[in-house]
Amino acid sequence: MMDARKSRKRPLGWFVAYCGAGLVIAFFVLPIAFLVSVSFKSPDQALSGHFLPGRPTLDNWRDTFQIIPLVRYLFNSVSVAFFSAILTVAFAFPATYAMVRLKIGGRFLPAFTLATYVAPPVVALIPLFLLLRRVGLLNTLTGLVVVNGLGNLPVAFWLLSGFVRRLPPEIDEAAWLDGAGHITVVWRIIAPMIAPGLAATALICGILAFDEFLLASSFSNDPSSRTLPVAIALFQGERLVNFGQMAVASITGIVPVYLIALFAQRWLVGGLTVGSIK
Amino acid sequence: MVGLAVFAVYPFIDVLALSFSKSSLGRPFQKWPVAANYLALARDETFRAALVRTMIFAIPVPLIEMTLGFSVALLLHSSLRGAGWIRGVILLPLMTPPMMVATAWKLILAPAGGLLDGVLLRTGLLDQPISFLGTMPWAFLSVAVADIWQWTPFVAILSYAALQGLPEDVVEAARVDGASSSNILWHITLPILAPTLLAILLLRVVIAFKLFDLVYGLTFGGPGFDTTVAAFQVWRTALAQFDIGLASAQTIIFAILVSLVTLPLTWLHRYSEAHAG
User: Fold this and answer.
1) Which one of B2, B6, B7, B242 makes the best mutation probe of the A interface by having the most chain A beta carbons within 10 Å?
2) B243 by DSSP, 3-state: which?
3) Which of A261, B125, B175, B181 stands 20 to 30 A from B115 (CA)?
């Protein structure tokens, strides 16, 4: 009886599931696919509203790199992402260890750290602007590295505490008994054991810094320190928007993160999920 | 760690002090008309509307994303062939820089040459193109759709991980007892996962309050002020009107609002954690 019901239900269930899966993929791929398509359209084709370019052209790809210094912006973005990620992990990892294992700061400090993440970044916009101006780091890549590196600390703490908590405490205790200090324990013993966690955290924080727009646009008004999202926002604001070139610039900014997604999918998903699942 | 404390506390004190002062971006702390900024805000219809708008965005949109994201997670969790594909694909929107998300959706929604208008015109559903980003309620909905596109994967990935941590034996036992799939979902899966799902929702609401990039890229707060959310309003006051005293006061009010909304969610999360098996 039960078997009969199951077999009756199944084909329909699978059909719905596959339709759902198809819709999901279509919805999530469509905007990116259209972006790619537009990048191959000439200006008049871009105004036609068709999905595919009638006669694909490489003009946009040639011109955009000449009109705006995309390579320079890409370099800026990648530098900010790379160095700020290192900064974040270098600070967050010992701090997380101290809070999670040594219970420094009791219950208050971890809660406080996470609470700072609740505040929208626009809250810190004004004081950081004044601070950066005072120390002369406005319009510099260093300024953006510092702001992103410190700004992502709560995220890194949240991610890393999940990894640190998983380790059996006997490990640190054994090391202490052997006479190892806290610094040795943190960097020589714990770090290698949660290397995937550190990598995932660094990648996620790097991507956050790469994607960041609000602070980057407010603190750098100069091509020498302009990041890609800011460049694209400025490009959009221009009077004669050339859709094809806009698409090329956007794709240039998307490719680096997609490459990371492609090669580090497992780490990213592991990093994202470890904090929320107990 | 001292650095972290300084980094977190310093801006707060600075903003608080600024909010009681008359300050421009060029010359902070000119005078101290202590309550003037707050009194101005109390009369400011635009700012109040921006706060309300932020709430209208930051609560329903994450709820929609939870529903969609959890459904996608169920799809991934079923032994569907090609689930790995979906998992790879949905990671992409999450990683796309929001400003590029805005560009991509702008191309779809543009009145001239946009894909959506193109399709609707060709199929005869429309006689004239709609300016989706320039008219209400479309502009607000457009921002919401772009946000759903970007953040549903986040919910899906976290929910999927939660589903995989589900105790198999309980589900199996229920199935042997003849419980249907929907019964298992409503009476076993969801109650067990409630604390985790609430944590995900909380996180999403927190992030939704930060909404800025998509508004900047898609509508720039318009038409009029109709998509101006709080973060955008603070930014405009500070860096386009250069009145950082007033912007600081807006910041404080905004921060209080965020706390008021997220605190009950935090309590609810604690409660569900304490009462879940």
Assistant:
1) B7
2) strand
3) A261
Are A125 and A29 contained in the same domain?
no
Average pLDDT over residues B246-250: 86
State whether residue B31 is helix, strand or coil.
strand
Q: What's the pTM value of the predicted model, to 2 decimals?
A: 0.88
Residue B14 has pLDDT above 80, yes or no: no
Give residues 248 to 267 of A whose Cβ lies within 8 Å of B: 250, 253-254, 257-258, 260-262, 265
Token duo for residue B98: 């929001």
Q: Is A258 exposed, middle or buried (0-12, 13-18, 19+ CB in 10 A)?
A: middle
CA distance B251 to B34: 16
Domains annotated for chain B, with CATH where assigned, are: 41-275 (1.10.3720.10)
Whether residues A85 and A221 share a domain: the answer is yes
- Asked if the ipTM is above 0.90, the reply is no
- Is there a contact between A165 and A195 (Cβ–Cβ < 8 Å)? no
Q: Which residue has the tokens 């986040």?
A: B154
Q: What is the CATH number of the domain that holds A91?
A: 1.10.3720.10
Contact call for A269 and B213, based on CB within 8 A: no
Which residues in chain A come in under a pLDDT of 70? Answer: 1-10, 238-240, 275-278
Is the CB of A236 less than 8 angstroms away from the CB of B103? yes
Q: What is the pLDDT of residues B128-162, one digit of tens each?
A: 888 888 888 899 999 999 999 999 999 998 998 88
List the single range of A230-234, A260-264, B75-79, B186-190 with lowest mean pLDDT.
Answer: B75-79
Contact B133, B219 (CB under 8 A): yes
Token pair recorded at residue A192: 């290698």
Domain of A172? 68-274
Same domain, A43 and A129: no
Residues of A in contact with B113 (CB under 8 A): 46-49, 243
Confidence of residue B2 (pLDDT cuts 50, 70, 90): low
Q: In this complex, how many residue pairs, one in chain A and one in chain B, have their CB atoms less than 8 Å apart?
A: 235
Tally of domains in chain A: 2
Secondary structure of residue B24 in the 3-state scheme:
strand
Q: Point out the least confidently predicted range of A211-225, B22-36, B88-102.
A: B22-36
Asked if residue B15 lies in contact with residue A126, where contact means CB atoms within 8 angstroms, the answer is yes
Higher pLDDT, A212 or B277: A212
Q: Is B178 helix (H, G, I), strand (E, B) or coil?
A: coil
CA of A173, closest CA in chain B: separation in Å? Answer: 23
- Burial label, B159 (beta-carbon count in 10 A; 0-12, 13-18, 19+): buried
Closest CA to A219 of A92, A150, A127, A120: A127
Which residues on chain A are in Cβ contact (under 8 Å) with B240? Answer: none
